[in-house]
């Protein structure tokens, strides 16, 4: 049995004073006499949108590079993650799916666990593509999606982002939901009415709220406004200081309390210095931490999830709400009860944070691994 040497723990959305005990890879007790030093144990972070990380682009990654991404994420407190593949040639997406499928078991050995695959596209609005290649965008095509899903037999496509206003989109949402896939609306020019139709069909989230979607206007709230107003809809946000103004982040947390998910939209530039990178064949340049394509548009981020937590907390938001948005909230969105929680009986995937929310220790199944510290 091992005690973590913490003063408190985040348990079911509240801070419980005292140390935490782990035995044989499982959390066994909480609320033990607290250790000095002010450290806090929280559930391992859950990143639900990772296109790449630490020099690796997932669309072209090898199995060894997927393992590297899992380990690099874990060193920053992320103990489970959702690989994301953007719009691209069918052959490239199919190959990436096969690589992820083959690599996921090895990646979880000493690294963060893969929770499935998120397909962000190709069923997106031509008016809100962002950096997604226009030539590979498609209207909803069930046969194409079935072919893609067939390349991930073991890991599985567990989430799909699409635009609800496209022809056939609502039928595809209903089909995916019936098969247990999480549908998120994004890269969309939907009106509020079209957005609500997507939610009525079973979509449960929006992808990087306000970015690449119809915005909030007082007479036409668009997809962003509909998501903020709709109870039960998860609102994903990228808090890197570039995707959203500070007040927009505060509005999201106020309007969607308890249903905000911090994501990184990470690229190969994440955890790296400024410079040149690639996202699914698209050339990127990173300056002052902002990732942009040749047209100057934002194209993913250079963010890490631990930094997103610190960024959000620095805006005066409740740290407990911010940590929920990086742990339990993404687990709820993905319908996973085996991640994002810290309580007796749960797997000991734990991040230990200091008062500045810097990751000081990470446990994967109760085993401590080396951390990267603040970026």
Automatic annotation (TrEMBL):
<feature type="domain" description="Amidohydrolase-related">
    <location>
        <begin position="41"/>
        <end position="366"/>
    </location>
</feature>
<dbReference type="InterPro" id="IPR003764">
    <property type="entry name" value="GlcNAc_6-P_deAcase"/>
</dbReference>
<keyword id="KW-0119">Carbohydrate metabolism</keyword>
<dbReference type="Pfam" id="PF01979">
    <property type="entry name" value="Amidohydro_1"/>
</dbReference>
<keyword id="KW-0479">Metal-binding</keyword>
<keyword id="KW-0378">Hydrolase</keyword>
<dbReference type="InterPro" id="IPR032466">
    <property type="entry name" value="Metal_Hydrolase"/>
</dbReference>
<dbReference type="InterPro" id="IPR011059">
    <property type="entry name" value="Metal-dep_hydrolase_composite"/>
</dbReference>
<dbReference type="InterPro" id="IPR006680">
    <property type="entry name" value="Amidohydro-rel"/>
</dbReference>
<comment type="similarity">
    <text>Belongs to the metallo-dependent hydrolases superfamily. NagA family.</text>
</comment>
<protein>
    <submittedName>
        <fullName>N-acetylglucosamine-6-phosphate deacetylase</fullName>
    </submittedName>
</protein>
């Amino acid at each position: 049995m091992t005690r973590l040497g913490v003063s408190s723990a985040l348990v079911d959305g509240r801070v419980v004073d005292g140390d935490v005990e782990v035995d044989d890879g499982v959390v066994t007790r909480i609320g033990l006499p607290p250790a000095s030093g002010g450290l806090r144990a929280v559930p391992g972070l859950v990143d639900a949108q990772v296109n790449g990380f630490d020099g690796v682009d997932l669309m072209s990654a090898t199995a060894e590079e997927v393992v590297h991404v899992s380990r690099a994420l874990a060193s920053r407190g992320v103990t489970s993650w959702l690989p994301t593949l953007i719009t691209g040639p069918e052959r490239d997406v199919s190959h990436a799916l096969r690589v992820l499928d083959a690599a996921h078991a090895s990646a979880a050995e000493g690294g963060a666990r893969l929770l499935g695959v998120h397909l962000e596209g190709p069923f997106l609005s031509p008016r809100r593509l962002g950096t997604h290649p226009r030539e590979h965008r498609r209207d909803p095509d069930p046969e194409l999606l079935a072919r893609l899903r067939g390349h991930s037999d073991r890991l599985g496509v567990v989430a799909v982002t699409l635009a609800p206003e496209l022809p056939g989109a609502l039928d595809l949402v209903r089909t995916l939901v019936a098969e247990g896939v999480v549908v998120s609306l994004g890269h969309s020019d939907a009106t509020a009415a079209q957005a609500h139709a997507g939610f009525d069909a079973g979509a449960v989230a929006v992808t990087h709220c306000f970015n690449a979607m119809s915005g909030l206007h007082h007479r036409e709230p668009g997809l962003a406004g509909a998501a903020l107003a709709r109870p039960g809809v998860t609102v994903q946000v990228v808090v890197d200081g570039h995707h959203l103004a500070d007040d927009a982040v505060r509005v999201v947390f106020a309007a969607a309390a308890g249903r905000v998910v911090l994501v990184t939209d990470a690229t190969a530039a994440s955890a790296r210095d400024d410079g040149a990178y690639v996202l699914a064949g698209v050339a990127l340049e990173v300056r002052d931490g902002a990732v942009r394509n040749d047209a100057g548009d934002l194209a993913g981020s250079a963010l890490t999830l631990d930094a997103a937590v610190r960024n959000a907390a620095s805006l005066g938001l409740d740290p407990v709400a911010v940590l929920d948005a990086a742990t339990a909230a993404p687990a709820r969105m993905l319908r996973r009860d085996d991640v994002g929680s810290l309580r007796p009986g749960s797997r000991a995937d734990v991040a230990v944070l200091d008062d500045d929310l810097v990751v000081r220790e990470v446990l994967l199944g109760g085993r401590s691994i080396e951390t990267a510290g603040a970026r």
